[in-house]
TrEMBL record:
This is T-box transcription factor TBX1 isoform X2. Residues 258-267 have a biased composition (Basic and acidic residues). PANTHER family: T-BOX PROTEIN-RELATED, T-BOX TRANSCRIPTION FACTOR TBX10. Residues 38-221 form the T-box domain. GO terms for biological process: anatomical structure morphogenesis; cell fate specification; epithelium development; positive regulation of DNA-templated transcription. Residues 273-283 have a biased composition (Polar residues). InterPro entries: p53-like_TF_DNA-bd_sf (IPR008967), T-box_DNA-bd (IPR046360), T-box_sf (IPR036960), TF_T-box (IPR001699), TF_T-box_CS (IPR018186). CDD domains: T-box_TBX1_10-like (cd20187). Coiled coil: none annotated. Pfam families: T-box. Residues 226-283 are annotated as: Disordered. GO terms for molecular function: DNA-binding transcription factor activity, RNA polymerase II-specific; RNA polymerase II cis-regulatory region sequence-specific DNA binding.
Length: 283
C-alpha cells in the first residue's frame, strides 16, 4: 500500500506535488521526474479551511471544486494513462456539531467499500498531449449507491476521503507485469480531502459553493454573508441539485457507449493497476 502520509507531507508546502518515490532507481525514467500542480489551489484551500464537504447521491454527483491539475516533465513521446481513486483518511465516522460548527468523530467507520478507479476519458495519450493544457476530471461522479453500475466512485457518507491521482506509463513490452511497480507515480494534495455527505452540513460551505460555482448563478439572489445558519440549513437537502444541470440529462447512448469502450481500452492497457496501485486502505 502507498504511504499517503508521506505524500501529504511532501505536498503540504504548496500546490505542486512530486511523486511519492523520487528514487531514480525505483521508477522508470518516464515517470520519475513528473510534477503535478493543483489548479484552483486557493479555492481548494478556502474549502479545506472550512472542512470540505462533497455531496454523494444515488445517481452520482460531480465534485466541486473540480479536480484539475497541470502536469509537467512527462516524456512527450511516451503514452500515459491518468486515473483517480479515493481512499479513507481514517477508519472513523463523523458527525457535524451545529452548536460548535465543527466536525466530530462519531465512532468506528463503516466497512470499507472496495475501491474503484476513474480513468480520465482521454487516456491513453502521449505526454505532449497531457502537458498541453489543464487536465480536468470534471466527469467524475460520487455516489453512495452500493449497487451502482455506472462506474461512479462509491463512498460512505459521513466519512473522510483523500483523492489521489495516478500517472501510469503504458508499457508495451511483453514482460510489462514484471516492471509494473516502476511504471506509475502517485500524487496527493491534502487540500483536496473532504467528507462525503448527502446534504451540506456547514452553512459556510453552502455559501462558498454558491459563490464559487458557475452553475450556481441562479442561487445568488441575496448576499450569502447575510444568510443565517438555520435558513441555509433548511434548504440543504435540495439547494444544490440544479448546480450541475448537465447531470440531469443522460448522454446519448452512443456517447455513453464510446466512453465505456474507452475505459475498457484503458484497463486493458494497464492490467496491473489493481495489484500495483494499492488496496485503498486508510493510512
Amino acid at each position: 500500500m502507498m504511504n499517503v502520509s508521506k505524500l501529504m507531507q511532501t505536498c503540504s508546502m504548496g500546490s505542486t506535488c512530486l511523486p511519492e518515490d523520487t528514487d531514480p532507481c525505483a521508477k522508470a525514467p518516464q515517470v520519475t521526474r513528473i510534477k503535478v500542480q493543483l489548479e484552483t489551489y486557493r479555492l481548494w484551500q478556502q474549502f479545506d479551511q472550512l472542512g470540505t464537504e462533497m455531496i454523494v447521491t444515488k445517481a452520482g454527483r460531480r465534485m466541486f471544486p473540480t479536480f484539475q491539475v497541470h502536469i509537467t516533465d512527462m516524456d512527450p513521446a511516451a503514452e500515459y494513462v491518468l486515473l483517480m481513486d479515493f481512499i479513507p483518511v481514517d477508519d472513523k465516522r463523523y458527525r457535524y456539531a451545529f452548536h460548535s460548527s465543527s466536525w466530530l468523530m462519531a465512532g468506528r467507520g463503516d466497512v470499507a467499500i472496495p475501491g474503484r478507479v476513474h480513468f480520465h476519458p482521454d487516456s491513453p495519450a502521449c505526454g505532449s498531449q497531457w502537458m498541453k493544457q489543464t487536465v480536468s476530471f470534471d466527469r467524475l461522479k460520487l455516489t453512495n449507491n452500493l449497487l451502482d453500475d455506472n462506474g461512479h466512485i462509491i463512498l460512505n457518507s459521513m466519512h473522510r476521503y483523500q483523492p489521489r491521482l495516478h500517472v501510469v506509463l503504458v508499457d508495451q513490452s511483453t514482460d510489462s507485469q514484471r516492471s509494473a511497480h516502476r511504471n506509475f507515480c502517485t500524487f496527493s494534495f491534502p487540500e483536496t480531502r473532504f467528507i462525503a455527505v448527502t446534504a451540506y452540513q456547514n452553512h459556510r460551505i453552502t455559501q462558498l459553493k454558491i459563490a464559487s460555482n458557475p452553475f450556481a448563478k441562479g442561487f445568488r439572489t441575496t448576499d450569502a454573508n447575510n444568510w443565517s445558519a438555520e435558513g441555509t440549513k433548511s434548504h440543504l437537502s435540495h439547494s444544490f441539485s440544479p448546480l450541475h444541470p448537465q447531470e440531469s440529462t443522460q448522454h446519448p447512448g452512443t456517447k455513453k457507449q464510446r466512453t465505456t469502450e474507452k475505459q475498457h481500452v484503458n484497463r486493458e492497457a494497464c492490467p496491473f493497476l489493481q495489484s500495483s496501485i494499492g488496496s485503498g486502505q486508510y493510512h
